[in-house]
Amino acid sequence: MNKHVGYDILFYLVIPLLNWNYGGDLMGDYYDILLSTIPGFLYTIYRFIEQRQINLTGVFVISTLLISTMVDILSPDAETMLWNQVYLGYAFASVFLISMLIKKPLALYLAVDFAYLQGYKRKNSMELFKTKEIFILYQLL
Questions:
Q1: Assign residue 35 a region: left if phi > 0, alpha if psi is -120 to 50, beta otherwise?
Q2: Which residues have C-beta within 8 Å of that of residue 25, sequence separation ≥ 6?
Q3: 28 and 49 in contact (C-beta within 8 Å)?
């Protein structure tokens, strides 16, 4: 098992959840959501500098959190915020669809990151997942 799994769980899950559960009453939901993204964002930058490779899952999680938060903050009222989240959902789905159409499904790259967290090398996982039988499943996923 990769030695960084504990740190990944800490910065991407535990700290944001603790902040959300115990910081929301003090700051309010908007600022709490914004503050929850900071540890994961900084950790993603640190890991990129340390390993010289991008952890796509971390970038994906942090960017979707930041984009969703910015859409919420920039929405003038609750109804507009809900509609903007619907449109944002369509945009995210479009990104996944386009990735499948250009034969580079995001699900495959997220799976490679997951396998890396379990101790498998990215190159080996990518070669395995790109075999014809498995790649078709990622296209369908």
A1: alpha
A2: none
A3: no
60 exposed, middle or buried (CB, 10 Å; 0-12, 13-18, 19+)? middle
Q: Which of 104, 37, 45 is nearest to 70 (CA)?
A: 37
DSSP state at residue 54: -
Burial class (CB in 10 A: 0-12, 13-18, 19+), 116: buried
**Which residues of the chain fall short of a pLDDT of 50?**
1
CA 35 to CA 39: how far, in whole Å? 8
Reported as a single tens digit per residue, the pLDDT across 64-85 is 878 887 888 888 887 888 899 8
Q: What is 94-141 written as a DSSP string? A: HHHHHHHHTT--HHHHHHHHHHHHTT--HHHHHHHHTSHHHHHHHHH-
**Residue from 1, 8, 114 nearest 126 by CA:** 114
